[in-house]
Amino acid sequence: MSPNALIPSHRKPRRPSASSRALRAGVTGGFLTLAVTGATVPANAAEKPVSETQEMPTITTALATSAAKSADTAEQVAFNYERQALQDSAFSKAAKAAEKDKAEAVKKAKAEAKKKAEEARKAKEAAQARASRSSERSTLSAPSSSSATGSSATLVAFLKAQLGKAYVMGSSGPSSYDCSGLTQAAFNQIGIDLPRVSQDQSTAGKQVGLDNLQVGDILYWGSAGSAYHVGVYVGGGKFIGAQNPSTGIVERPLDYDMPTGAVRVL
Question: Where in the sequence is the domain holding 222, given as residue range(s)?
């Protein structure tokens, strides 16, 4: 043994080599931790821990999946909002279009109703105008049943002048008459020559209905061609005739002694 073997060395201890350093690594809470031992600590870093730790973010599969889901959710929400907005817009447009169509339909219906009312009014006025013209033509073409003009006026005036005179069978005037004698004398005043007896006078003109009498129509009692009495219609629902010996020549309403028929010679 060397005599110096037991003498403590005064040499500084050797600095551990790089190979004596130990490297520890671990993952804690998603961060990477590195620990280095055996390293020389500077004098001014005495309060620092022996180990130095560096934390780095680590993206895990769960985190990536969660982020992807969040993105999908956000995209779906945005799509839903957009779709709802489009639906609301379409609904609003459809409602406005329906309201417009309804207003147009109401307007059209009112116009049609107004047009039909106007057509009905014009048709009514036209019908009234035609009726008025027809009435005027009838008035101009036929003498009034309540008044006499022209020849019929002369006829009526003569008959009224004979009222009150006597009835005498076979007489033709001028102071007395029988029924056919008075009728013959009256029509002679206007230039019409009638047969002398009632039977012949009842067929002397055109047969007319009692509901369509005109002034100057000859009324008869009995049947046409074999009448036993005659008179003259003077208008206003009355006639003048030589009735019988007790009454003489009188003016009476038709319902006093309703005639059988009438003939028109004017």
Answer: 151-264
* Residue 198 located in a structural domain: yes
Tell me the sheet residues that pair with 166. 176
Domain tally, the chain: 1
Beta strands in 107-258 (DSSP E): 166-167, 176-177, 206-208, 218-221, 229-235, 238-244, 248-253
Residue 83 in domain? no
> Residue 233 sits in a domain of what CATH number?
3.90.1720.10
Residue 59: pLDDT band by 50, 70, 90 thresholds? low
Has residue 52 been placed in a domain? no
Q: Is residue 37 included in any domain, yes or no?
A: no
Lowest mean pLDDT among 4-13, 77-86, 167-176, 227-236: 4-13
Query: Count of CB atoms within 10 A of residue 85's CB?
Result: 10
Compute CA distances 248 → 67, 164, 197, 229, whole Å. 136, 6, 18, 14
Q: State whether residue 89 is helix, strand or coil.
A: helix
Please give the pLDDT value at position 211.
94
Q: How many CB atoms lie within 10 A of CB 71?
A: 10
User: Is the confidence at residue 20, as pLDDT, over 90?
Assistant: no
